[in-house]
Amino acid sequence: MDEELAKLLEPYAEGVRELTLRARAKVLEVMPEAVEQVDLPSRLVAFGTGPRTKDTVFTLMPQRDRVNLGVYGGAELPDPAGLLKGTGKRHRHAVIARPDDLDDPRLRALLLEAVSRKRG
User: Fold this and answer.
1) What DSSP line would sit under 8-48, residue for residue?
2) 105-119 vs 14-30: helix axis angle to the nearest 10?
3) Which of 5, 45, 56, 100 is the most exposed place for a label (fewest CB within 10 A)?
4) pLDDT tens-digit profile of 30-49?
5) What strands, in cross-sheet order, belong to the sheet with 35-39?
6) Is the CB of residue 58 less than 8 Å from the CB of residue 46?
7) Its pTM surpasses 0.90
8) How confident is residue 120, by pLDDT bands cut at 50, 70 and 90?
9) Domains by residue range for the chain, with CATH
10) What are phi and psi of 13, to 5 degrees?
């Protein structure tokens, strides 16, 4: 784990740190070429096709008892299982409260669809 990511995760409970690292591994599994950036002031990790905000595909936002996996453009994705939460015009997030949440094939399908759409 790099120093900035360690600094971001330091204030969180061990379980949230572990969930964040597992969620990071899942994001990198579906998007191995992702440019990863730790944003300490915003308390998140961004993954995208490049370094600009408009390049962002996913974010990981640790919370007190969970991790929110943000999906840029998630409002436009088909989500029949209702995994994506939020009310923004474009962005949504999946709540990762347990390690098993990351093993849901419906979540993987959403992530792959988000990557596919960003690649165009």
Assistant:
1) HHTTS-HHHHHHHHHHHHHHHHH-TT-EEEEETTTTEEEEE
2) 50
3) 100
4) 999 999 999 999 999 999 99
5) 35-39, 44-48, 56-62, 67-71, 92-96, 84-85
6) yes
7) yes
8) low
9) 3-119 (3.90.1150)
10) -60, 155
